[in-house]
Amino acid sequence: MSYLPELRGALVRAADRQTGAPRIPGHPHAHRSLAWPHRVLRAMPALVAVCVALAIAVAALTQLGARSRPRVHPATPPPSAAVPGRRSATLQSELSVLRRPQRASDLNSGQLRGYLREPQPPFFNQGPVIRHLVRRAVAAPWGGWIYLIPLKPPSVQSLMRGQPPMSRGEAERLTRRAAPGVAEEEQGGASVCCSTAAQIAARGELSVSGGQLPGRRTYSHVVLIVPDGVSTVRFTLMPGGGVSSGTPSAALIIVTARVHANVALVQLNRPCCTRVAYTWYAPNGHVIKAIGFHPQTPHTHSAAG
Amino acid sequence: MAHPRTDITDEELLGRAGADGEAFGRFYDRFESQLLGFFYRATRRADVAADLTAEVFASALQSAPGFDPGRGSARAWLFGIARHELADTWRRGRVEDRARRELEIEALVLSDASLARIEDELGGGGDALELLRELPDEQRLAIEGRVLDDRGYDELAASLQCSPSVVRQRVSRGLRSLRARLEQST
């Protein structure tokens, strides 16, 4: 006889919530998936075909986006070069926003609905979404919300079945040190994927996007996911040119942004940037870390943070 | 009609926890009294032992998808979480409830009867524990680490700064000595 039967019951219910498979009243051991109506089963071939088509479209768009979108990753280390000693870190241990209870609004979003429905991973060469960890983090000043979408690492089999398919050896090499990663998703489709907990701790996850609004007004958005303990981020943005191209330091844009829900945001009403550096500050003002190029004498330029 | 398997291993139960809540319930059944006893011996308080047990099982549920049977048994893995939780509790001076909050597990309400049962049934071994304190330090530490805390020989060897075979020898001698003393005292 159990010493703490209430605890046992609560744990079983929590486990069921995690599986997303609520029990059917009157059938304590039966999962809802066993009781799908026949019309759903009859429609299954069509549903599978639609899902496969969606998955292929998403993979293609992701690849196209990766080629065309001006993403900047200063000194991005490869996954295998993660910070020593942080390999055991988990996304939840680095990002407090993932530790708060999930709310209905975290999932109830047209922006995410497609990802959450798809049977295939929404991002290229990644595993499925860890649904119970999805969080709506902060509202973006340009509209919509920034979402954090944790994903499982890909399996060897999924990489071997992927587009293009990998050899077993290559897939095993890729998955050997794989860990769950977090994707950042903004309204309008800009997204970055998928930094692991160790990479978040080492450098955060940076996304830079931009475009031209009607009336030829250009804009830029900078989104950085940072680990717990970072309260402010000072960005140094280098528009055009590059460090080695002799761009005058006066052209640098220095912007400071406060961190909310592990996210720092910057919006510029101008094109941005070929290089990005940033410094993390603790709540007491101490520098935690400086990442990216280090201009000698930057001059502050007005910008919206 | 299919009958439920009774020979399913701890590792298999843990592996199924991600898809079947009842599998985690069976895993809980196998280790509840062991964990409660472990914490009760360490804290001598039934309410704290129950609180720690709840947090460890919640952490185990969260971490079950990352469990790798190739790196050790489920029992060793669970007791690893337990030792970690206990150490954190000593350091912070309170039992953490992070995992339970994240899983939205309601607060544990303990009745006097539950607490009394834990004290009566899991607080046993008092005589042996008294005798254990009389053993030479090297044997006592080896037995406490291996038998009470379920730590591996390699890990103990590292913390006691000797080889694993020496730890085995100390555990064996200490248990033999305990047995002899218990027989004399009864």
Structure in words:
The complex is a heterodimer of chains A (305) and B (186). Chain A is an alpha+beta fold and 305 residues long. Chain A has helices spanning 5-19, 38-42, 44-68, 91-94, 104-107, 110-117, 156-160, 168-176, 197-203; strands at residues 23-24, 27-31, 135-139, 145-151, 181-186, 191-196, 205-213, 217-225, 232-238, 253-260, 263-268, 275-281, 287-291. In chain A, the strands form 3 sheets. Chain A has a 7-stranded antiparallel β-sheet. The longest helix of chain A has 25 residues, at 44-68. Chain A is globular, with a radius of gyration of 22 Å. The termini of chain A are far apart. Chain B is mainly alpha-helical and 186 residues long. Helices cover 72% and strands 0% of the residues of chain B. In chain B, helix 9 (153-160) packs across helix 10 (164-185). The radius of gyration of chain B is 18 Å and the shape is globular. The N and C termini of chain B lie far apart (52 Å). Residues 1-5 of chain B have low confidence and may be disordered. The interface between A and B is medium-sized, with 22 and 36 residues.
What features would you highlight for this structure?
heterodimer; A: 305 residues; alpha+beta; seven-stranded antiparallel beta sheet; disordered C terminus; B: 186 residues; mainly alpha; globular; disordered N terminus
At a glance:
The complex is a heterodimer of chains A (305) and B (186). Chain A contains 9 helices and 13 strands. With 305 residues, chain A is of the alpha+beta class.
